[in-house]
TrEMBL record, chain A:
The chain crosses the membrane at residues 25-46, 76-94, 106-131, 236-258. Belongs to the binding-protein-dependent transport system permease family. It is found in: Cell membrane. This is Amino acid ABC transporter permease.
TrEMBL record, chain B:
Keywords: Signal, Transport. Residues 67-291 form the Solute-binding protein family 3/N-terminal domain. InterPro entries: Bact_solute-bind_prot3 (IPR051455), Solute-binding_3/MltF_N (IPR001638). This is ABC transporter substrate-binding protein. It comes from Streptomyces albiflavescens. The lineage of its organism: Bacteria, Bacillati, Actinomycetota, Actinomycetes, Kitasatosporales.
TrEMBL record, chain C:
It comes from Streptomyces albiflavescens. The chain crosses the membrane at residues 21-42, 49-74, 80-100, 181-206. SUPFAM superfamilies: MetI-like (SSF161098). GO terms for biological process: amino acid transport. This is Amino acid ABC transporter permease. The lineage of its organism: Bacteria, Bacillati, Actinomycetota, Actinomycetes, Kitasatosporales.
Amino acid sequence: MTANPVESTALYDIPGPHTRRRHRMYGVVSTVLILALIGWVLYLLFDTEQFTYTKWMPFEYKGIQELLLRGLGNTLKAFAMAAVLSLTLGTVLATGRLSDHRPVRWISAMVVEFFRAMPVLVMIFFIFVALKVQPLPALVAGLTLYNGSVLAEVFRSGVNSVERGQREAAFALGLRKTQVMTYVLAPQAVRSMLPTIISQLVVALKDTSLGYLITYEEFLHAGKLIASNLDYDLPFIPVVMVISPIYIGMCMLLSWFAQWVSRWERRSPKTEAVEVAPAEPGTLLRGGVPPTAPRP
Amino acid sequence: MIRTTRVCRALAAFTALIATAAVTACGKEGSPPVKGPAADKLPTYQVDHGFQLPQSPTWKRAKKRGYFTVGAKEDQPYLGEKDPATGTYSGFDIEIAKMMSASLGFAPKTIRFRTIASANRETALQNGQIDYYVGTYTINDLRKKLVGFAGPYYMAGQSLLVRKDENDIHGPQDLAGKRVCSAAGSTPYQRIKTDYPRATLVAYDTYSVCVDNLLTYQVDAVTTDDAILIGYAAKVPDELKVVGKPFSEEPYGIGVPRGDNALRFALDDALEAREKNGDWKKAYEATLGLSGVPAPTPPPIDRYPAS
Amino acid sequence: MNVLTDNFSIFAEGFLGTVELTVYASALALALGFVMASFRVAPVSSLRVFGTVWVTVLRNTPLTLLFFAVLLGLPRFGLVLPFKVFAILALGCYTSAFICEALRSGINTVPKGQGEAARSLGMTFHQTLSMVVLPQAFRSVIPPVGSTLIALAKNSAIAGAFSVTELLGTYKTLSELGYNIVWTFFWIAVGYLIITLTISAIFNVLEKRWGVPR
């Protein structure tokens, strides 16, 4: 997909020798500029004394490392709970939206649309402040409501994307409605939507950091406790340099897993019956419309 | 696509490497050196083992589980500060919480402290997350409608913390056009907002971020109770100073659940006894007193009637 | 009910704060996203790498962490700006990664033959870009860009927790004043719905005018 220098694209022709030389010159200039930018940031880091011993010394101690690990554990705990509950809620709401009964369908649609339109932080604060719930359940409940609603839409479009013939054939075999759903439609839908589901879980993982704002003692909170300590010379930058690679790494591993699954999906002969739009993992932003598979 | 994946993978591998390095690294025991109160000089309090208070639901609940859960601040040097490494709390408020626990029949060691942000104090007391709260909690009539107050145990007053090189600010009257930082929803914040509207207010959830912003020239002054400010000034004496006379009276009380008058009066009695036998003074000298400010006389206890 | 009428000025201030954050951050996100997208499709490999790293890192960073880094970290470099500007920077940079991806996949939907045909007609690079590729790409990026900007409006709520005046932050003032917290949140929710529905209405109009069914 990325422009490949030897192939022509909509924008660029195959470069000739002259153009290639020019591109090489651009490359050198931009590399120099980017390196200069990196160098400037590094200079600023050194100039503002971000690498002094006092600022990094706290990380040497077991107590601090354990504090960070405890925070990381709490983040993962909130994520695991939110993931399981969102998948459950998503299934329930998707079932509701696919129901044959109009009121059920209508109520589910209302719930899904409302929670998808609300900022997840507003829900977390509402549950925490107005309903007076403890930080962890408030965070998990907020994440569950939001991600569950988004996942419901993903599941629904997944089920709708299964070829109509599959459903008709199953009914023709005399299967009941529930059986058609559980044995024929749901397995294929989940399989085709797996990359999108995992991408949504990346969003949930990222959003666990909102717990920091309601004093849930997660990873970022642990970082802030170290960073805002005057004894350690307020090591905000070192803390960011330590915790952000871990956060980004975790999210990236999950995104990469989603990408791997989608590639495995496309190779797998079992799924050939279902034509699925390649879900670009990670592109899903909170509130973004989940990519829907094309209907046959 | 292929290139993207490759870059992704390289980055992922790099971060995974850093993560494992962080996890497997062997650390030094103990906690990084701190400038705060030294723990070995803290006074000990005699535990009143036979104490009974069956009229108080909070006390009965604590008795059942065997310890008190106390709400505190985690970022106020010399008052209520949590050591990030060991997780232990220290400071004057913490000492008050400990001596109260001892008077109510629980060894101070058993207390479980919990950090509660200023804005969530009433909620935490109302829904039973904590049994009582000791953390620069100013007694006022509005809050008395939501929670009960034992004490006051200390009389603080709002003051200003500025950089050492600041020569323009001598008191709240000089704040016009200056950026002033305080904790969102706190009493000092509201006072500056109503009494000195020409100051530009900045709010954060914790004072240490305010102090940080002061040090980095983001704000020109930090305002809150002098006790808190003295604690910070003592941490960074080369860069910060407290200016002017206190321009308010902030009686610090111990927050308890609103209906629990039995607990409130028991805490009042306990405070009075500790002030009389010298424990209060010892606690002050071991914490706030390290800043060089001599111990004041504790304010009279306000036993307001149950309502 | 009278929470709204009694404190209309507080709500209005918060609402305008959110609108302001959304508008400025959207502008920044669109501009930066466009630059990054052009980097990612450029024939110069170092620019492509830069764009890819930018997008990959920002897309996998929790926004709260980014706010933390920008609002509390950047002042350590001696970069002193009002909190609102920091918030706009954080929101804009974060969203630019998603905008970039939307634009890039839009450009990728334009068939290769279109560009080849344009070039064979003797069009210059500038003409190919502005008369052939971008108009077609523009149509297919309207819906994803719209939903990204709606997400931006919703994400701006995080700024409130970092002491920027905006809609969610009003709950603190109002609960101090003793108003019913449930109604306060009700009106906050209505405020966010107004903003998100406005954005989606704008993009619906855009899509009707320029969108093409593929």
